[in-house]
Sequence to fold (353 residues):
Amino acid sequence: MKKEELFNEIVRSNSERIKRICSYYCSNDDDVKDIFQEILINVWKSLDRFRGDSAVSTYIYRIAVNTALGYTGKAFRKMKLTVSTDTVNLDTITDDDESNITEQRLEKLQDELNRLSVIDKMLISLTLEGLTMKEIADIAGITEPNVKVKIHRIKTQLRTNLKKDDYDN
Amino acid sequence: MTTENVLTEKDLTNLVSRLKKEDSRYSFFYNVLRRFYLIIISMLAILFTINVLLNEQHTIAETVGKVCMLASLLIFALLMNRYYRLLKSIDYSQRTLAMLKAAARRYRLFNADILWCIPALLLLDTYFYTKPWLSSYFLLFQIFFWGIMAVSFVTGVIIWYKRLKPLRDAALQMIAEMEHYEGS
Fold:
């Protein structure tokens, strides 16, 4: 298959995936479009090296996450992780029933997510994608136990802070 | 938000065509530059050889100077070749930790490769040293030559400090966070 055909095929079958990753990191449409295009450019550039050793989805996630980390550049500390009521798997990071999550609760969750470090935001974005610990470890390049511990710690921190807020109210 | 909001089929076709143009432009530029260096070095080598063979008053010092000049150009050509390859090898499909480590290496102030500039500059300076027309201004020329090099070096360090050091610091901080295993 020619590079152009392979590229078109990969983009068509993964555009939703890429778009979701973009929307985690950018809150406005213009930024989403810019980062989406940047990811496609990086997919094109690294396509010659793609040997099919890993799943196409893993390959796409790696490029998307790495581009998002690089895209923020010097402003990486300000990188936001955006979730909405449309975000799937929200219940995997909180104890809430996804269908009952209120706007106020979502706002609080959003605040808590944005207090996380860049790496924690990256791990949470992949968790929201429904990836397994093994897949996340493969994308990040760290060990599976390390991913498990980090994600467990983040979830505990999020749940504790959300509960604390419930008591305060 | 639908995919069409982000990138339409027409956008994708345009993007692919731009990317293909970019690829061919890059290869063209890279090949032109490589050939330019090769031609310059070859032409100078031929000119120097003819000059040495035909000019009976040619001294050994002048011959050494010309060899130094060619060696200096060759080192700069190889360095440029290496940097272009390095830039082209940036791979976003690597694991995040590997990509961050590669970025941290790339944004170091001093890479081992840069040390090759020292012999290249010394060789270039040796070439000028062997030029008879420069002998009366030798000290002045040395101040001028190494002064320019010092200003270029300081400018490079300032640019690195302002633009690349923050990126390297950010990469190092993320690496440290990723490698920190909280279970231990």
Q: What stands out?
A: Chain B touches chain A at residues 1, 3, 5-7, 12, 15-16, 19-20, 90-100, 103, 166-167, 170, 174, 177-179, 181-183 (CB under 8 Å). Residues 93-184 of chain B form one domain. The two ends of chain B are 43 Å apart (CA to CA). The first helix of chain B runs from residue 3 to 6.
